[in-house]
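**User:** My hope is that you can spare some time for a protein that puzzles me. As I understand it, each token names a local backbone shape. I would be glad if you read both lines and explained how they fit together. The protein I mean follows directly.
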Amino acid sequence: MKVKFFSIIAIALFVYGCTSFTGIGTTNPAPMGNTQEDIKSGDAQIENLISQMTIEEKVGQMTQMNLDVVGVGDIYKLVEPHRIDTAKLHNALLNWHVGSFLNCGGHAYSREQWHSLIGEIQRVATTETRLKIPIVYGIDAIHGANYVFGSTLFPQQIGQAATFNPAMSKKAAEVTAYETRAAGISWNFSPVLDVARHPAWSRFFETYGEDPLVCSKFGVATVQGYQGNATPVDSLHVAACMKHFLGYSGARTGKDRTPAYIPEISLREIYLPSFKAAIDAGAMTVMINSGEINGKPVHASKDILIGLLRNELKFKGVAVTDWEDIIKLHMNHRVAPSIKEATFLAVEAGIDMCMVPNDYDFSKYLIELVKEGRITESRLNISVRRILEMKKALGLFDHNAMPSVQAYPNFGSTASQQLAKDIAAESITLLKNENKVLPLNTSAKVLVTGPAANSLTIQNGAWTRTWQGVDAQYNDESKNTIMESIKLIGGSNVSFEEGCTLYETSNAAAAIAAAANAEYIVVCLGEKPSTEKPGDIDDLTMPKAQLDFVKALKQTGKKVILVLVQNRPQLVNEIVNDCDAIILAYEPGDYGADALADILYGKINPSGKLPFTYPRHNQSMIWYDHKYTETLDQNFGNNAFQPQWPFGFGLSYSEVVYESIRLDRDTLVGPNIINVSITISNRSDRAVKESVLLFLSDRYASMTPAVRKLKDFEKVEIGPNSSKNVTFSLRRADLGFIGEDMKLTIEPGDFDIFIGERKASFYYKNY
């Protein structure tokens, strides 16, 4: 099939190359400037409101508070069932003029309870405040409307990326937007556009993997799914929020919110493209990185937030901090001697809204700073205008800003649930299948075991009904665990023993005994759900108890099928040879177990491919787009790059053969296009879905080239004993890299194309 687009990253790099951004972590201004102008929007309603607002009311619009602040009870200890404290709400809206709220009181709510809570806040805001400005409510709907009971839970982002099918993620985002808006919430803090460059990072599972192009394409698809095509955004969609601008995932240690040291070339080539692509796609808001780059906290950097984000990338929407980030400028980063000075730094740097979230210090100090003349009122106008424009674009000024629960009849629909299962099915990645041990026959005797085999919490991961996702009381018990899904197919031929927990082998004996009556053992290993700081780890190695358990199972002489359900790629090199088959399920969501069981029994042909490089050792974490010097081994050969499984790897039950690559020309001149075609053959009697990845290698360049870079991909379905032709188009910009001048550089020379195991070459000359 003909691919009619070329890579987003090429477009992004071309645009980035137009100007040079310098001064990250320094006091040097960006060439395009790091100041903002108070330019009126042209919207009479918004300008009329701004002209009437007091300093206090403007500051209130820039303030975002935690729901707990206006709830009955104490912060983090609300009285159940959660409800609004009228006196606290009046204080927030009538005295402090708060313009935004977020979060839930520790766990998910029903749609009805959300409507009760937000409806009361919105009622007071639109009927009792002086200017009747509605509030905007934000939530982290990360893999579905995860804070709304009964919503559809999809695989986490890393699993969605493994589909290499952005169209499916767009559909998932549409469902998420619909089900989030059904709860009365119009702002979603998603997608995460950080590129995962450290496998130990606790938010690895929230990303689309290690490649900028994959992150760009999935990011654009998700933004479009959340926001829809209408302007203003209709009541079926929400405002997307790009997270986290910029370099958050590049922490040197892999620990959450620790310093990143990123050369500008890497910043532009690796971390920036996904944000640029999403901005061009119309993303309405952005959340700023909590961390620091090269010694400068991002939320205090004019160079990044104004010079780069506003002036170079032309972002027009709302920039919000993450949780307590202005406080952290004082308490953690130590760049401000007080919270008041931290407020000054962040607002001057370009923050529009502060996720405070639990007190009124930000408002108090910002009011003081304006009255002292240190921050101008016109500076407030810039942010307030963006916030009011967002609210208007979301339809919040309309009389039906809180549509009824009944207005969303497709909430949690069968079609949405099937989509979640389909995405899981296309994400699950077969990594080993020795002697074609899979698929299983329904008559086979199967023992299901391991800590992830009967756990919806491990299956769903963090951001599932609660922040960390570990409180099982909020699980939907009508959904199947892996063990339950396998039993639905295998029936009485399937037995279960947990065998071990995440960290202990106290029940191993029972599983070993049960293995005597089985032909196959499906052992499901995993990781405790976690995210952000609670997810920091010191070692990527799978816990010893789980490794020892697999070794013991191997001694039974039965066929061992390993299923990995995890936040990030834990090291399993000790047991790879002990397993006859290995499947990576990621965190596949409520319907992932059903998809996995169908794959195990051959009802579905697996088609997932790794969106990251799966490491073999703790000290050998090298990305797929590494440099040639990283391949040099101790014997002076080129075998140092030995991951457990490479980026883009994934097996199926079919024999898929890549025929030779065909180019429509052997020399690319100037602005012309080179078309690259390949025929993919399915030499089996079952249909297969195959992700076709095109890599490009620049043989020689003035800046050391990567061994290869992904330039395009397409997922195709090939019928039994059939072939399909896939064509990609490469353009001049696809050949470029960021040069020493921080601009896109395209040099004449030889280039190699790799698709599967096939290779072709061409020469590029300018004109």
Notes: The longest helix spans residues 111-127. The mean pLDDT is 94. The radius of gyration is 26 Å.
